[in-house]
Amino acid sequence: MSHILRVCAFSLLLVAIAPYSSQAQDGKTFFKGKTVTYVVATAAGGGYDLYGRLVADYMQKYLPGSTFVVRNMPGAGHMIGANYIGAARADGLTLGIFNTGLIYTQLAGIDGLRIDLNKMSWIGKAGTDPRALVMAAQTPYKTMEDVRKGDPAFKWAGSGVGSAAYMELKLLIDGLRLPGSIITGYNGNEDRLAMRRGEIQGTIGSYSSYEGFVNDGYGRFVAQIGGTNDKVPQLRDLVKTESAAVRAAIALIQSQGEIGRLTAGPPNIPADRLATLRGAYREALEDPELREKANKAGRPIEPAYGDDLAAMIKDALDQPPTTVALLKAALSEGKVNSVRANGPLIEVRDKGREILFKGPEGTVTAKPSGSRTVIKIAGKDGKREDLAPGLACAIDYTPGGDNEPAVIDCK
Fold first, then answer.
1. CA neighbor of 396 nearest in space, from 377, 373, 371, 378
2. How far is CA 165 from CA 102, 172, 173, 232, 253, in A?
3. Cα 209 → chain centroid
4. What is the pLDDT of residues 273-295, one digit of tens each?
5. What is the per-residue pLDDT for 162?
6. Structural domain ending residue among the three candidates 203, 229, 256
7. d(CA 141, CA 252)
8. Is residue 105 domain-shared with residue 157, that is, in the same domain?
9. Is the four-CA dihedral 80, 398, 256, 55 of positive or negative sign?
10. Which pLDDT score is estimated for 338?
11. Pairing mode, strands 35-40 and 67-72
């Protein structure tokens, strides 16, 4: 009788655990022979691309039989890539990385964001990285006080409306009364190249992304937001006399650095597949080889996983009305910011006095100034009459009016 009872009890135990073991097995088995698209919401190069490729390589390692393909989808301050991920089929075969600036975007209700971050399938985050204000080395700006007293024509670099850099710069420019305007369209390492060329004076970004740039003598840090590096002053210590709203905005910026380098999938990925992806992500981020590669590249690995990250996102989105109002005010159209267009000149008229090119809003007709527009061709100073159809150019201009370009930099 006791033997029969033991057999029955064991059978009941097998029945009880069967759904869980089957579910875990189903999740692992599903990815064998499958291709997973890992979207990086920036151009190739730069921190997001590096983290994304590391994550994709090592998740593939821990999902035997799967193939991870990285797809760069830059544009609109990471919204293009994030929207693509959010609209993908919820089968676990589309994941990706985008920046925390979309938290600001959702809070401010910016048009163009078609996802709800609270509903995404959160896999994990790779880093904790403080934000930092960095100036080009050739500028006279060595402290925050220098920046605040700087030239009104100061140019800040941002990737696009909705990106973390854009949102944070808007908050700081408006809240701290910093000079200058934001030029968008810089992706990957383009802002660093622009600072070296003298097109841009400064920007904001993750400390690790600009540490090498600063160490190589091309830039300097004037303030950091978060972090523990005592060689760079904390912005919160420099603004103690500012309003509570400004201090709250700086605290919000600091919180974004704590949830950096996110990986997510679309809403409603089946539970077994989501658990499998989270498990592979955890194994990837704890792999000594991945950590060694990240360390050599100067990229910190301080991960969080699954539900812990989802809770952090929820907390970041739970802001009081005063902070939300500050974000919306920072994005109000007090003035139109400059835009960067990249591509060939479509047409050149009247010896360069009028040019046509493709901008974010469509075909643009612009009128370069003979004295105010900086024209570079193949790295050398140029003139309007040197411009020709087909030249590949980066053009900084302010939409509206006569669209006079500030810079035309052609290869």
1. 373
2. 11, 10, 12, 19, 10
3. 11
4. 999 999 999 999 999 999 999 99
5. 62
6. 256
7. 25
8. no
9. positive
10. 60
11. parallel
Non-local (6+) Cβ contacts of 327 within 8 A are 104, 107, 108, 167, 171, 249
> What's the 3-state SS for 241-286?
CCCHHHHHHHHHHHHHHCCEEEEEECCCCCHHHHHHHHHHHHHHHC
Q: Are residues 305 and 221 in the same domain?
A: no
Residue 171 · residue 327 · CB < 8 Å = yes
What is the predicted pLDDT for the residue at 9?
47
Tokens, residue 274: 């989501």
Question: What's the one-letter identity of residue 333?
Answer: E
Q: What residue type is 78 in one-letter code?
A: H
CB atoms within 10 A of CB 75: 16
DSSP string, 41-81: SS-SSSHHHHHHHHHHHHHHHTSTT-EEEEEE---GGGHHH
User: Domain holding 215: CATH number?
Assistant: 3.40.190.10
Residue 341 confidence (pLDDT): 82
Average pLDDT of the chain is 86
Q: Measured at the alpha carbon of residue 107, what is the angle toward residues 105 and 108, in degrees to the nearest 5? A: 65
Predicted pLDDT of residue 357: 92
Cα 67 from Cα 58, distance rounded (Å): 11
Closest CA to 335 of 183, 191, 192, 208: 183
Determine the Cα–Cα distance for residues 366 and 79; give it in Å rounded to an integer: 27
Instruction: For the chain, give percent helix, strand, coil, nearest 5.
Output: 40, 25, 35
With a cut of 70, which residues of the chain have pLDDT below it?
1-25, 161-162, 330-338, 360-361, 399-402
Q: Give CA–CA dist 303/370, Å, rounded.
A: 52
Whether residue 141 sits in one domain with residue 245:
yes
